[in-house]
Design brief:
The protein is mostly helical and 194 residues long. The protein contains 6 helices and no strands. The longest helix is centred in the middle third of the chain and has 29 residues. The model has no long low-confidence stretch (mean pLDDT 78).
């Protein structure tokens, strides 16, 4: 798979996946792929990604309402705000690749999805993780898991697409998910060590 993508030097990880200490995704290989057939153009890929970000924003706002802990409420609000920034970036990418000048409100009008990043619904994430909504560690761990799932989904979608421009944009979105993961890890290190 890697050689087919132009990688000339490939190394095996000593100890295999059990030695891996970074984020990992879980679930079947095709999880979330119903959102990406592989035939989408670049515009469609951005629209799907925007919808996934909206689903995650709504999830965080729902979780904010379900907890009584003020610190947890503030964290969920912050996570929801971050998703809006992700959406703004996707609209910027959309405008760059289409030479249009669409704003978020106009762009949002064309989005319909009930999935969150990573390709699962809110209830599927809650059933899988059973997070303690009063625990900042649980909240951040859940957010990091969702971002890792999103990173994995975008990488798989980039690998399967037949559209070169879509592959490039999906790779870019995956890279930004990696940045989001690092932000969450840094936030956890800073706020939970206090």
């Amino acid at each position: 798979m890697l050689a087919g993508k132009g990688f000339t030097k490939i190394y095996n990880l000593s100890g295999g996946i059990k030695a891996w200490e970074k984020e990992t995704a879980y679930g079947p290989e095709d999880q979330g792929m119903m959102l990406f057939s592989g035939n989408e153009g670049v515009e469609d890929c951005i629209i799907v990604a925007y919808g996934l970000e909206e689903g995650l924003r709504e999830f965080y706002l729902t979780m904010q309402e379900r907890t009584r802990d003020e610190e947890a409420q503030a964290l969920f609000a912050k996570l929801a705000e971050i998703e809006v920034l992700h959406q703004q970036r996707l609209v910027e990418i959309y405008n760059e690749v289409t030479d249009k000048s669409t704003d978020m409100e106009e762009f949002s009008a064309s989005i319909v999805t009930s999935e969150m990043e990573g390709g699962m619904t809110t209830e599927e994430y809650l059933a899988r993780f059973h997070p303690d909504l009063e625990s900042l560690t649980d909240i951040l761990s859940l957010a990091m898991s969702i971002e890792a799932q999103a990173l994995d989904l975008y990488q798989r979608a980039a690998f399967t697409t037949e559209d070169v421009a879509a592959e490039k944009v999906l790779g870019q979105i995956a890279s930004e998910e990696r940045v989001h993961l690092q932000y969450l890890a840094d936030y956890m290190d800073k706020h939970l060590d206090e």
